[in-house]
Design a protein that fits this description.
about 80 residues; alpha+beta; globular
């Protein structure tokens, strides 16, 4: 099972010394979505709380639905209506 990670709170390792780490990429854009292969969750300890979505494939309809819900603007969420 492949884990896909939403970066409402996420990160990773650099391919080269000059490449940005996943944490640095996440800090620039906290809505960034990472593939599990791109990151090391240990990099986010005490930095952020990852949201992990598991799926057999990115083409799984339930995976797509979950990602749509997670990436929807907060104003569209029912819980945001009472804020």
């Amino acid at each position: 099972m492949k884990a896909f990670i939403l970066s409402l709170i996420l990160a990773g390792t650099a391919a080269t010394a000059m490449a940005q780490s996943a944490v640095e990429l996440w800090q620039e854009d906290r809505s960034r979505i990472f593939d599990a292969a791109e990151i090391d969750l240990a990099d986010f300890v005490w930095v952020a709380r990852p949201v992990v979505v598991f799926a057999q494939t990115p083409n799984d309809p339930q995976f797509g639905q979950q990602m749509d819900l997670l990436t929807a603007p907060l104003t569209n969420w029912p819980c945001a209506m009472s804020l």
